[in-house]
Model the fold of this input.
Amino acid sequence: MTRDARAREAKQLIDRIAAESRAAGGRAEAGARAYCAELLAGSGFAVTEEEFTYSAFPARWGVPLLGLLLFAWFAFVGSRARSGPDAAVGATLPFLLLLPALGYMVVRMAPPERLLGRRGTNLIAVRGASPPLWLMAHIDSKSQLVPMLLRIAGIVVAAVAVAIATGAAFLGDAERTGPLLWQLVAGAGAAGSLVLLLSVVGDRSRGALDNATGVAAALLVAAECGGGRPLGVAITSAEELGLRGAAAWARRRSRVKSPVINFDGIDDVGTLTCMARGGSRLAARLRATAEEGGWRVRFRGVLPGVLVDSVALNGAGWDAVTISKGDISTLARIHTRGDSPDRLNGSGVAEAVEMVLNFIDREG
Done:
């Protein structure tokens, strides 16, 4: 199949999947999942659904609550800084000493299904016994009051402000730091924290780029990878609510951990990117494929503040990477109403599919 023909097919899939917003567990997501199941069954896969339960509280309210806490703290530090550096240090130390306790409470003392319990459904398609490779993409979508680009910037600014305040409080001479430094740090930190505070989850984005494109890529690779070759496909839910679908999928397959190629956010602009953790053998093999075929692929870690299903899989011991494509304009429309099918033509998906098919052929 030519790349142009593949792009046209990708465009049709994107338009169909992103016909409406697909909140995790909702009617629209179920309809899109059923459509994917029909296509995968037609490609010779045995298709099943796996339900899981999870708490939606951390993903829905964790970031806004953290933003509120940081905003209040930075505002307090800024007000105390007017009285001098010693007062600013005095306002900083209690918060920093409290952070480990807060982290422990979040991780250990909040049972995963106690607050805002939800049910999710992953779509699993398998061809052959014990697939040597899995393809993955999440089908749910979400919106936020701020786009991903602004959220990333807010996380970075707030983190840098916390780091500077920590260094100044524990390592610096209070008199040498001066009130101006503390006021600047407090102001920047409050601005970054306000962005986090506004990161409230909604359902006003059709999620064409994030992530109808990824689902389309997985479906096309599965359809074109013929010859009865063993392969697994996982279309996950609740990625936008803390990677819960990928985590549930991994828990059920803890014995055999085949490599996973996750597709997420494949724009028509920018550079094809493979996001992987250091030392990934799968990433090294993909790099070899790209170099042999003359593909221009950028290999890097996951951007700060960005959560993709491969992150959950890496944490569970899987060798997983995420294939994406885009630039700054891509990040500016993810999780907004602007993430609609009319801004995509499928060429990025066609490129990603072609590269992964070449990889599978090379691997034999």
Summary: The chain has twelve helices and ten strands. Strands lie at 46-55, 117-127, 134-138, 143-144, 201-202, 231-236, 260-266, 271-275, 297-300, 320-326.
